[in-house]
Amino acid sequence: MLEREQIQSRGFRNVVADGVVTGFQVAFRSLYYRGVWLSQLRPATVIVDGETFNGDQLTWTISGKTYEQAEMAALGNINWPLLEPALLTIRKPGGLAQGFHDIEIKYSFSASYMPPVMDELMTQIHGPAKRRLLMV
Amino acid sequence: MGNSTQNSGKPKRGVSLYSYSGEYGVTMTMEDMFADIHDMGARGLEILANGHIDGYPEPTDEWVENWFHLLKKYDLVPVEYGHWVDSRLYQGRELSTQESYDMLIRDIKLANRLGFTVLRTKLGVIDDDLTPVKNWREFIAMALPDAEKYNVRMCPEIHNPTVLRSKMVEDYVEFIEKEKTKHFGINVDFGVFQTDPIKMWEGQDLSVLKFSAVEDIIPLLPYVYACHAKFVNMSDDFVETTTPYDRVLKVLIDHKWDGYLLSEYEGKDKDVPGYVSGQLRRQHIMMKRLLGD
How confident is the model at residue B1 (pLDDT cuts 50, 70, 90)? Predict the structure, then answer.
């Protein structure tokens, strides 16, 4: 089962490649009521302790496959399942220090049955995705 | 109507899994939702395709096998399959007619595989008045032979702020008459009859909301293959306080409409465990009484 909060505590960890910490990961679930195609998503921004990451500083992992944000706009046949948290990997050499971190995630998605102006606002109806997480 | 397993001659009760969207995956599984609906003696089921089908749009055979196992276990009838033609799938352009058809046919086949006979076909819109995309007639017409082959009825939902007496509904009826088809119709969301709305958020202006006269549904009934029994607030004495359910259901009964009423809860506290179940149970007591179940 998922945690009630949008940002999940499971999945929050540093990423190590060849013995070097290259960044960190954080998982979040959709609060929408259906899964969306990757091309419906607007690029995410992650703010950690006041530091902002966006664009090619982060990737999305959906169903075990990792996508650069720039390529997702063309992927209209890959679904982000409703009950699967998306795993964001943030490129940050050294990762995050042990202890508490304030995380905020911003993104949006198109919903064609809503007025077009809503496409940039769809996640705002749920309020900001913020959570304080603990890095071990 | 197209969907009856038994011809009762009056509306039948069902539930849309949308009602449970605040709990699904957090405090309720798919089977929990099925069991809850079964408790109410409701049989009709609506799902949202890319919400409730694991592996959508290509579920595994094992998932499909379990789907039919659960339907049997809880005595449920797959009634309505909610899906979308995501016209703004790609930023900056609308889907072509062929692309829209491709999206439609994928869902038509999957709905049929899962036993559904009505589709809640959500079309993309182009403005704040929810005017559907300009090419809807073209791709719906392309899909009519497939809908016939796979025994489904594509139904856009008439949902507030749209009212029943509107250009949109006239256009749909004109299309149905012109095509002489039984495979395209409408789903009426009872929110269109909401005479006493309650504020859902601070600052909401209720004075701008329009509603339809209950009688406006009568001439449309031949084209209505399912209804969303939208509700937002059930009282403890089993009255929906925003919508004249007594009058709406009386019209349906009087005209021997025998499709499914699919409960769609859209009120507060959807994520409070058990709250929606309590609201649904109140609503089904109300509907059982009005229907004489």
Answer: very low
**Average pLDDT value for residue range B69-80:** 98
The H-assigned helical ranges of chain B are: 30-39, 49-52, 61-73, 97-113, 136-149, 167-179, 245-254, 275-291
Pick the CATH number of B12-291 from 3.20.20.150, 2.60.40.10, 3.30.310.10, 3.30.1390.10: 3.20.20.150
Reply yes or no on whether B159 is catalytic: yes
Mean pLDDT on A100-113: 95
CA atoms of B226 and B119, how far apart (whole Å):
9
Task: Name the residue of chain A whose CA is nearest to B58's CA.
Answer: A79
ipTM value > 0.90: yes
The answer to whether the CB atoms of B25 and A79 lie below 8 A apart is no
pTM, two decimals, is 0.95
Residue-range domain boundaries for chain A: 13-135
C-alpha to C-alpha distance for B90 and B105, rounded to whole angstroms: 19
Nearest CA in chain A to B127: A115
Contacts of B116 (CB under 8 A, 6+ apart): B78, B79, B80, B81, B152
